Structures are given as structure tokens and as C-alpha cells.
Amino acid sequence: xxxxxxxxxxxxxATASGIFTGALEACNIASAFDRRIRFEDNKLVRLMPDGSxxxxxxxxxxxxxxxxxxxxxxxxxxxxxxxxMKRRKGMRGICCTNQPPRKRNWxxxxxxGGHPLPNEESFAAARTALALLRKARKDTLVFFLISxxxxxxxxxxxxxxxxxxxxxEFHRVLLGSGAPISEINTLRKHFxxxxxxxxxxxxxxxxxVSLLVPDVPLRTLDALSSGPSSPDHSTVAEARELIxxxxxxxxxPAAVRAFFDGGNIPESPxxxxxxxSFLPKLPRKDAQPPRRNPSAESMSGEDxxxxxxxxxxLLSSHDLIENARTLARQAGYFTVVDNSCDDWDYAKAATxxxxxxxSLRKAHPRLCLISVGEVTVTLNENPGAGGRNQQFALACAxxxxxxxxxxxxxxxxxxxxxxxxxxxxxAIADPTTGSRARAFGYDPERSLREFNACPLxxxxxxxxxxxxxxxxxxDMRLLIADxx
Length: 484
Hints:
The chain is an alpha/beta fold. The chain has 16 helices and 15 strands.
């Protein structure tokens, strides 16, 4: 590479990083909240995106308000809710996240759940939430504030004989299985006492409002934090089939294996034959209270636990995409979005996106390809320091060595600021990554085999470090090139 090319690559690194961080900063929970939900004169006003609203809940109808905040964005979501909703009488709740806030409200119990594996506080949070929700009656309004990451940090086995250590090993096996997150969460739902709609089942008579910041595809919203408040459409038979398909039965702890082999696992709540809308409507302002309106749409009309459930998406990966697209266009790039490799193996995704990029670049030399979603990684028994984003970036780096004169950079990073078992969000690769790594004494091929990409990218200064963002809107991959 010539010095001029080095300058171009440095510029591409900076541009890609700027697009990623700028897109993430623009995904503001507070402003998204205000676009969907408002509190006016002790009333909750739901602003319908299709213009059919607004729809209103009179808070005066409810003696108690319970708030269950779960996930990586739980703390900011709870803070915004408390700031917007002035009522405090009868309010109680829990907040379970991986980074608890310094400022706490005495009405809430706070827990620092484990991630990517559950811990003691994960269990304690689940027990506390269940105990609170079991006090709910028809005069109770429940807010579920749910974001990504809750599958690990908020858990409790359905079988009380299964220990924390066995639960952690169960999660560890699933994460290394190579299964897509929707299938991993199918297994988690049938294992857990608080997932797959079972948390909502603890308060069947209450009106339940779920405010969501999903890190899953919108077509599979019930996979968000393994769906604690939403009906589950998967079955026990499907969960058992996944164990067989991915060959993980013998890797599971004996107690977990016995649980799934047993014949008395109850089905999770929810209709199994169809997928109802995730946007049920509340009655109009002059109608009867929602819980008294049998004609109101629901997630699952056949299950009383979801008869009075409302779901609202505050932010999603679509917002992340649109913000990135806007920034790339402002920087003068022709922009294409391709999310088709969602849930693919990282190596297959790397090959596909690079081939797509080179094909598009024939007509558009100054190009930015945006891809949002998650790739999968099948871990060996002793993986090193890394995550799916760094693994993907390193796979791209080795492929890019075939194009040594290309002015092209690849960024892959998690919107939560955490990639795997590291404190980095991801990494940036280019055609010089492999040669620069070898000059520092690293073996890129070995790092890839051993899932140990983090030390390599850290040494090169090509790690993406944001710290925990309080968001979790899926991973972003950017492939970017200038002319020449």
C-alpha cells in the first residue's frame, strides 16, 4: 500500500466509525418515547403510528402501578418513564440491567443481572418480579419495559431443582451452539419460569403495557429477552427438536438434560397455531376500560393472560439503519441496505457481503453497504477473547488480502457496546489488517480459529470502543469504499 492509500484507509476508518456512533446517538430513547407515549392530566396517551389514535388509558382507574424494567436499556427506559409520568401513588417495581444507574428511586428494587451468563441477581430479580406481579388485580396497571439482554440477566429455571451453575452452563452451551438467537430463545423460553409469557401470566387480571426496544427482527418480537410479557408461539416439541438438531444434548448439565427429557414440561402460554398482531388497539377514550372490553384485540384472544396486553415498539434496528443511511448519504456515499444475512454463520455472511459489495461497486465506486442483524458463531471448547463482530471483521480481513490495493474498510459492531466476552463493541478491518497483524507477531488465521480476535484488533488500534451504550438495537456492519 502506498502512503496515499494509507491516508485513504485512515479516512475510511474514521468515516465508518462516525457513521456507526452517529447512528447510535441518533437512536434516542427519550425522543422515541415521546413519539409513541405521552402522559397528560393523569392519562396515558398512546400515539398511533397509523394516525388512528390517540388511544387513552386513564391512570385514575388503577390503584396500583407496577413497573418491570428488564434489559440493557432498562435503566434509561425507567428513568424516562418516571420523568414523564408524575403519578407515584401505588407505584412499585424492579429494574434489572447489567449497568444499574447511580440514581435510584426508593420505590424500585435494583438488580445487576449477569450477561452473557446469568448470576445470583438474575435469579433474585426474577423472584422479586414474580412476587410483585402475583399481587396484581384488576385495579393494577403493569408496565413492562423490555430491551435486549434480558434473556441472560433475568432468569429463573422452571424446575426449582436446577441450580444457578447448571443454568449458567445451559446458557453457555446455547451461546456456543451456532443456533440463531430466535432458536436459542425458544429453548430459553421453555426452560424458564419468567420467559415465554410466564411473567405476564403472574398478573393475568391486570392491564399490561409492554414498551419494547428490540434487538431481534420485528417478525420475531416474542424472542426479545425471550418474551417475558408476550405469548409464545413455539412448543416443547420444537425445543426438544432444536436440542437434537444442534447436537447439544450431551453438553447440557445432567439436571437440564433430565428436565428436557421429562414428559411433564408445561407448554408456555400463547396460541401455537397462529401469530397475532403485536399492535393490539386499546378502546377509545369514551369506551369501557380495556379490561372490561371483550372485543379489544389482543396478542392471544384464547389465553386470558394476554387479553389485556398492549405492545409498543419505541425503537428498533430500522431506526439504526435509517440513521446510518442518512449519515452515509450526507458524506457523499451511494448507500445500499442488505440485511439478508441475518442469523447466518459469520464466515458465510462475510463472503456474501464482500461479494455483494464488489458487485455493487462496479457501478458505484463511492459506496456504503449497511447490514444490520446478528451473525452466528459456533464456539470451540476454549474460546479466546472476542465476539461475533470481531470474528466477522477478522474473517473479512483475511478475505480482503486478495485485494491489497483496494480502498475498502469493514466495520462490525454491537449497538450495546459489548461484543462477546470483551469490553469492545467490535472492530474495523481493511486489506492491510492481516499484514499489520503479522508485523506485530499475531497469526490472524490462528486468532480466527481460536475465536481470539480481540487481542489482535486491540494491538492494531482497530477496536471499536464505546462502553455500554444503554441501547441494544442489534449489530451493524458497514462496508465502505472511496473511488479508486
